[in-house]
Design goal:
With 372 residues, the chain is α/β, with parallel strands linked by helices. The chain folds into 2 domains: 215 residues, Rossmann fold (3-Layer(aba) Sandwich), CATH 3.40.50; 103 residues, Hypothetical Protein Yjia, Chain: A,domain 2 (2-Layer Sandwich), CATH 3.30.1220.10. The chain contains 13 helices and 16 strands. Strands 1, 11, 12, 13, 14, 15 and 16 form a 7-stranded mixed sheet that branches. Strands 4-3-7-2-8-9-10 form a 7-stranded parallel sheet. Helix 5 packs across helix 6 and helix 12 runs antiparallel to helix 13. Bound molecules: guanosine-5'-triphosphate (GTP). Guanosine-5'-triphosphate binds next to helix 1. Keywords: Chaperone, Hydrolase, Nucleotide-binding. Belongs to the SIMIBI class G3E GTPase family. ZNG1 subfamily. This is GTPase, G3E family. Zinc chaperone that directly transfers zinc cofactor to target proteins, thereby activating them. Zinc is transferred from the CXCC motif in the GTPase domain to the zinc binding site in target proteins in a process requiring GTP hydrolysis. One of its GO terms (cellular component) is cytoplasm.
Length: 372
């Protein structure tokens, strides 16, 4: 396992969001800010609005959402890897790189998973870059309908670290709250930010920094945001929904708005497990291998800090479907809280399925929680 090194690689973030949801508008605003002047933007296609910025590269990657049961996430993402390699010399002068951050703007229909896999596992990329944040724009006007009809939009929101709600000037407060609640159910840990005509607070968006250049202790707690899964006002709504118990619905109908159970995000449960006791590393690895083999394609995102037996610091795990970032052992715990916390966003994988295999294979039982 790697340990955190003093000089960190270049942060690279993924900006995703459905067609016309405002990605370029947000970028155009950000790259005018002093903090983002030295940001190089890799664009996956030419959008309606051109980017008014000097540091722009293009990629021809076709990253369209998988359909049916097939998983395209292992397909080589050669073009993106090549672009990220080429820009190191194309955007350098006298041997000095003239960017210190990269944002990849994906096409509206792109599946974020293959891009994240490339960023997490391609050796040429991981030698120079580190994944910073996955940011998803959600268009307030069309989002309810888009989420209902386009599974790719649901996945884009589900894997996000940050969700930017665009065009909030075009809806009323109640509509915005309803959308925000739906997104909070889909992805409790993602921070939601409002943008009008692309105006959004840059540092809040692109600084999910797990391994920040200037931080000795990575802000792993903020990155994990496990607290968001507990006491989430929407969790009651979701647990009702995921019980899929029509009988339960009938008794709670008066307090909880009944969702349309055919919506795509109804099949994306998310939850957080907490464990008190240190976990045997080999047993943990065995459980993770099994889970990824059997359900990898349906684990949309997994993040965790794990208290491994006989280790000083926690081990950070981060996976997108069945591909894992190499686990990183930190030199120390960020606080006195030394419990293992693992968050999952899945597609149709019930909490009990994960919890039961974990207990059976590691001998550790999850602490009871009011999360979903
Ligand atoms: N009223 C309003 N319009 C917005 C806002 N953000 C974006 N738009 C408009 O929405 C349209 C689409 O914005 P883009 O930034 O091109 O969206 P995109 O996601 O980059 O689009 P594609 O790359 O084509 O998928 C443009 O006409 C923008 O001017 C906003 O906050 N308010």
């Amino acid at each position: 396992m790697d340990t955190v090194k003093k000089s960190s690689p270049i942060p690279v973030s993924l900006l995703t969001g459905f067609l016309g949801s405002g990605k370029t508008t947000v970028l155009n605003h950000l790259v005018q800010q002093p903090l983002f002047r030295r940001t190089l933007v890799v664009i996956n296609e030419f959008g309606a609005i051109s980017l008014d910025h000097l540091l722009v590269a293009h990629s021809n990657e076709t990253l369209v959402m998988e359909v049916g049961d097939g998983c395209i996430c292992c397909a080589m993402r050669g073009d993106l890897a090549k672009v990220l390699k080429d820009i190191t010399w194309r955007f350098s002068r006298n041997g000095v790189r003239n960017y210190d951050r990269v944002i990849i703007e994906a096409t509206g229909l792109a599946d974020p998973a293959p891009i994240l896999h490339t960023l997490m596992t391609d050796k040429n990329i991981t030698a120079h870059y580190r994944l910073d944040a996955v940011v998803t724009t959600v268009d307030c006007i069309h989002a309810m309908d888009t989420l209902d009809h386009h599974p790719e939009a649901v996945k884009q929101a589900a894997v996000a670290d940050r969700i930017i709600l665009t065009k909030s000037d075009l809806i009323d407060e109640q509509q915005r709250r309803t959308l925000q609640q739906r997104l909070a159910i889909l992805n409790p840990a993602a921070t939601q930010l409002l943008a009008v005509n692309g105006q959004v607070d840059g540092p809040s968006v692109f600084s999910a920094n797990l391994f920040s250049i200037d931080q000795k202790t990575p802000d792993v707690v903020r990155w994990l945001n496990a607290e968001a899964y507990a006491g989430n006002p929407s969790s009651r709504y979701k647990s009702v929904r995921h019980d899929a118990a029509q009988t339960l619905y009938s008794s709670k109908r008066s307090i909880v708005k009944q969702p349309d159970i055919n919506r795509h995000d109804d099949h994306i449960p998310s939850y957080c497990f907490t464990f008190d006791e240190p976990i045997d590393p080999e047993l943990f690895e065995g459980w993770l291998d099994l889970l990824m083999t059997v359900k990898g394609a349906d684990i949309l995102r997994i993040k965790g800090i794990v208290n491994m037996r006989n280790r000083t610091g926690p081990v950070v795990i981060h996976g997108v479907q069945h591909i894992f970032h190499p686990p990183v052992e930190l030199t120390g715990w960020p606080s006195d809280d030394r419990r293992t916390r693992i968050v999952f966003i899945t597609r149709n994988v019930p909490r009990s399925g994960i919890e039961d295999t974990f207990s059976a294979l590691t001998g550790c039982a999850a602490l009871p929680t009011n999360t979903h």
